[in-house]
């Protein structure tokens, strides 16, 4: 009894630290109950792990692309606008994951410690055992996910050593030692891998109802579990919770980061590891042939989205948030002004130039047939799918958007505060059937992926090329070349010439690396990857963001915003508040 009173006090203590609540030591309201109550009220107990789900960073778009060479913000008060302009600091970090992830881990640790004490059913010890296994498996998988986000945001070099974060495997209380040093990056990664393995040991690959008793896993069948028992715990009602497939994908994401140039020092994760982890997910998706044919437009596949139900995913999406109701908020933020939007994210000319010609050749290649006086002709079809440029259509009436300086509308470059600064608007992610006209506003259902399969295929391509070269397959039946070929064919690139450019680089590891990175840039644009990719690749962060000014039918590339990042900023900082509180913590070099 004393132990559980202590745990609920710890919960209250950490809640106060997070919220600044001044009522911590006031008398509790009558409906507040201690943690012991949860043992007979499973919904109350599951609130611990629900807190973990609620803190997942990819529960909404961050648009940190606006701090990269892919996009700028048209709002000078935007956090990423200021960050890219030199205001990123240890006490001013829009990408801080320290407090959020550590709080989530605290709740998950309590759930892991207490799961087996909870009565999820009425006098059914077998079902209680199965529920406890599932929830502990979810908690381990989520703990690995939060470790990944902590390492991505705060891992870095300190005193010549690559450090990770503090490893917290048990709930902290008032007697815990908080002044703990950061573990090494390698130790942190091994903790992540161990948590993924624990999740895989406890969770099914997917949550599906089984048809007969023989499909009950042996460990539960030996205890007398029936098909109905299994379906009650691990059936389709649990879809979108942490599963074995999701945990496997998280391991591949983390391994790609760890194998990359900025994180590979003193780290045992190899490119081969990352490729093998990604292949495990791809094999569950029927290999290269499983790449979704509608994956390019996953955000606007109206029939597919509107018919989703029962936690089912579209073929492109491995894990997603709940659908929610209809909304027009995303479009209100990003539609062009003539469509009653605020045009917030402005793609750069840098990104536009990354889209090759329709024949697959980069614009700088002599065989691209690129015409700077007609720059949008014969281009990769993804350009028009992802970006609104001069002459594109947008909105529910497919209105032509004129971004020219002399175009006569507020969609023109730098016309009003909500106009584009680059000559481009974002189209990707938005549903063009949303109407923002004040006299007839309507919203639509949106789908928000946490993990897309295309990302996993690109992880494999990048890691496999580094491990075995463009056409090497390792222990798998497909290569980096095979994956990139499938992705480009789906996009409609190089269809008329057999993708001659891809064929020309299939024997060149360095050229294939650049192509893979460019395909990743295009396919995942505006989804929050570019910021982290540039850093893990240890690439130049200061490339000036450029735009296209059109006037008198003449095209002029212009500089829009300088990027102010020092070399140490390939790693993010540990929050200054933590450094000031705890002497054992070491800050990353340069911060």
Automatic annotation (TrEMBL):
SusD-like N-terminal domain sequence ranges: 62-209
Pfam families for the chain: SusD-like_3, SusD_RagB
InterPro entries reported in the protein's UniProt record: SusD-like_N (IPR033985), SusD_RagB_dom (IPR012944), TPR-like_helical_dom_sf (IPR011990)
Signal peptide: 1-24
Domain RagB/SusD: 336-591
Family note: Belongs to the SusD family.
Source species of the chain: Belliella aquatica
Keywords of this entry: Cell outer membrane, Membrane, Signal
Compartment annotation: Cell outer membrane
Annotated protein name in UniProt: Carbohydrate-binding protein
